[in-house]
Amino acid sequence: MHQDGEGFMTDLEWDKLLRIRTTGRDDSHSDQYCYPYEPTSYSVLERLANSGYIDKSNTVIDYGCGKGRVSFFLSYQCRCRCIGVEYDERIYKAAVRNQESAVSRNRVDFAHAKAEEYEVPAAADRFYFFNPFSVEIMRKVLARIRESYDGRDMLLFFYYPSDDYIAWLMTVDELMFVDEIECRDLFDGDNPRERILVFEIGY
Questions:
Q1: Fewer Cβ within 10 Å of end Cβ, the chain: N or C?
Q2: Stated pTM of the model
Q3: Three-state DSSP class for 112?
Q4: Please, are residues 102 and 16 in contact by the beta-carbon 8 Å criterion?
Q5: Contacts of 42 (CB under 8 A, 6+ apart)
Q6: What is the mean pLDDT of the chain?
Q7: Is the dihedral of CA 150, 203, 63, 182 positive or negative?
Q8: What residues contact 121, with CB distance under 8 A and at least 6 apart?
Q9: Strand, helix or coil at 87?
Q10: 5-43 confidence digits (pLDDT tens)
Q11: Domains of the chain, each with CATH number or no CATH
């Protein structure tokens, strides 16, 4: 059972405000490597937006963006640019349809691509993951992100991380743990996975 977050608005109310449709889960094309579409709760995104890690100077890439909720919300709240990357053509088209009506559509782009094949733009400096795929794919995605590294400040956000993800992340030399954004109080059940881990890329 979800409790109201900082803004005391439901996910449906946020969708209406942003003029998009992103609710509901879709696992029709999921497998052992690519996980189901399930949007991040807006209350969690509010907490991320209020963390101070993202502002209008940043470009965020949302891997496994689904119907675009993260991109539309962060571009609206933080005035940043956002790029959603989605491999499932049907869900990608739903994101593009949302863009036609979204209030922040001019700051959002979408790419129909596999995450591990997507070439990271030079401007991208914030990366969001809500368990979109396996650690195996994540290794390749991180290699792509590292390829684009030129000394700029780059932060990676991992929401609802599994033990496997955390164990692997802590072994990657180029990643430095920065912060943990606590989200357990937003939901019933005291689930320890309700948090966002923040890592920085550095050498």
A1: N
A2: 0.91
A3: strand
A4: no
A5: 5, 7, 9, 10, 11, 14, 69, 73
A6: 90
A7: negative
A8: 59, 83, 148
A9: coil
A10: 445 799 999 999 999 999 866 554 445 544 566 789 999
A11: 11-201 (3.40.50.150)
